[in-house]
Amino acid sequence: MEQRTNFHSKLGIILASAGSAVGLGNVWRFPTEVGENGGAAFILVYILCVVLLGLPLMVSEFVIGRHTHKNTADAYRQLAPRSGWVFQGYLGVFTSWFILCYYSVVAGWTLKYLLSALAGRVTTIDDSAAYFSTFTSSPWLPLLCMVAVMMMCHWVIARGVQAGIEKSSKMMMPLLLLIIAVLVVCSFSMPGSEEGLRFLFKPDFSKINSDVILSAMGQAFFSLSIAMGCLCTYASYFSDDAKLVKTAGSVALIDTIVAIMSGFIIFPAVFSVAEVSPDAGPGLVFITLPTVFQIAFGSVPFIGWFFAVMFYLLLLLAALTSMMSIHEPTTAFLLERFHLQRRTATWIVTLSCIFVGVLCSLSFGPLSDVRFLFGMTFFDFFDFVSAKIFLPVGGIIISLFVGWRLDRQLVFDEVTNHGALTFRLFPVYRFILRWLAPIAIGLIFLNELGLFK
Ligand code: TRP
User: Fold this and answer.
1) What mean pLDDT comes out for the span 92-109?
2) Ligand 1 site-directed mutation target among 50, 61, 325, 385, most atoms within 8 Å of CB
3) Could you tell me the CA-to-CA distances from 318 to 169, 175, 323, 410 in Å, in that order?
4) Stretch 291-302: mean pLDDT, rounded?
5) For 372, which DSSP code?
6) Phi, psi (degrees; rounded to nearest 5) at 192
7) Most exposed among 38, 165, 210, 400, judged by the fewest C-beta atoms under 10 Å?
8) Are 295 and 273 in contact (CB under 8 A)?
């Protein structure tokens, strides 16, 4: 087995963790949720959720990972040997693997749209809804795209922590932030974009109801990569002088800025085109946006082409850095528990995910009739079980574990680097973990299962 390495620099730590957090959740899921939940008011609730629940949970995962310097399963085994808590370690490893199987399918779509945009096709589609469904329901092309992005991710992970994850995050994240800045400027300069800004900035508090609050919490967890093995595994590669609370703060800040900027990119553009509506749902970036690019830039073809290419490149980069963080927990587990070579462990994860991902991908086409449990297809099933069952359950267990089971002093030493830093909010942090987080997440969970409907 190879030597365990750490991330080389503090910047690497922040960019890799931010790379995990910034993903399809920000650019694709966040604008969709904002559109469906009424704009500015949702954003305010979302920010509250990030600060009150997301940050404390992120710090907790960092504590577990950095204290043990082990993969997620072994981390829980070390902290609470032979107890039921060990289950959470395995759940984290399993959930990562499980999410990768379908996340890679959507990541594959972004690759296909990037290639189409490059070829100038996205801006000349007649019927973008038909284009989307013809593409996703065809058997081969989506599969090929999924395998292609998996192989990109594989290539990075196989290189290891420093030469793979850290180095590629240091290249991809700055590029991603630059693209966002360029797109925001483009989007603002479109006629009629003020309407979009009003939607994003003027809160209408009458729109806040329990559904909005619960959606905001779910989105915050998904977007910050909380509650499965990802952040915990990355934190196991943090050096002992890394500042956990500060790192979590920076990651949450970058993640939130990127999410809001994605709203800035999408909504002014959507509102400047009267025919499409902001609450178009998950098809927003794959169906609505091509129409927007076309109508808005019909007369200036180059800008339309440029906007589309940049946008789908942004989606692909965001998806890739997140995929890396979803791949690593399982790889690290196999590598360390079974003393495998990194190359072998990486192949096992990649190939098994491709194998299962095929089912998810085909569930939009040839396998669309294969239904189980409440009429869900393979893809729906994977999405439902991971995002709506594993994530909330994981979140509750982590907050209870760090709040009640771990020794108070151990946690305090970890967040203050053994007294080198001050953390005045420690009692608040502990209160949130012991009470607020488990209860609040419990509510999301029950709501998502439909108990309050
Ligand atoms: N946060 C990523 C996004 O915004 C997705 C992601 C990566 C994730 N790791 C995760 C979601 C862990 C939930 C749990 O797209």
Assistant:
1) 93
2) 325
3) 10, 10, 9, 34
4) 75
5) B
6) 85, 5
7) 210
8) yes
Q: How far is the CA of 127 from the centre of ligand 1 (A)?
A: 31
Is there a contact between 234 and 20 (Cβ–Cβ < 8 Å)? yes
Give me the pLDDT at residue 2, please: 61
Average pLDDT in the 146-164 region?
96
pLDDT tens digits along 413-428 = 999 999 999 999 999 9
Q: Which atom of ligand 1 is nearest to the CA of 221?
A: 13
Q: Of the residues 157, 225, 393, which should be mutated to test ligand 1's pocket, given the most ligand atoms within 8 Å of the CB?
A: 225
Q: Give the atom of ligand 1 at the shortest distance from the alpha carbon of 26.
A: 4
Q: Which residues does residue 376 pair with via DSSP β-bridges, in sequence order?
A: 372
Atom of ligand 1 nearest to the CA of 21: 1
Cα–Cα distance between 81 and 116 in angstroms, integer? 52
Calpha distance 94→329 (Å, rounded): 9
326 Cα nearest atom in ligand 1: 9
Q: Can you tell me whether residue 376 is helix, strand or coil?
A: strand
| Pocket of ligand 1, beta carbon within 6 A | 20-21, 23-26, 222-223, 225, 228, 230, 322, 325-326, 391
Owner of token pair 């994530």: 391
What is the full DSSP assignment across 91-142? Answer: HHHHHHHHHHHHHHHHHHHHHHHHHHHHTT-GGG-S-HHHHHHHHHHSSHHH
- Give residue 279's pLDDT band: very low, low, confident or very high (50, 70, 90): low
Query: Domains of the chain (ranges plus CATH)?
Result: 10-448 (1.10.4160.10)
| Spatial CB neighbours of 90, under 8 Å, sequence gap ≥ 6 | 73
Q: For residue 345, what are its two tokens? A: 């462990």
The two tokens of residue 121 are: 């096709």
SS3 content of the chain, % helix, strand, coil (to 5): 75, 0, 25
The pTM for the full model equals 0.92
Q: Which residues contact 338 (CB under 8 A, 6 or more apart)?
A: 345
Substitution site in 30, 221, 223, 353 for ligand 1 pocket (most atoms within 8 Å of beta carbon)? 223
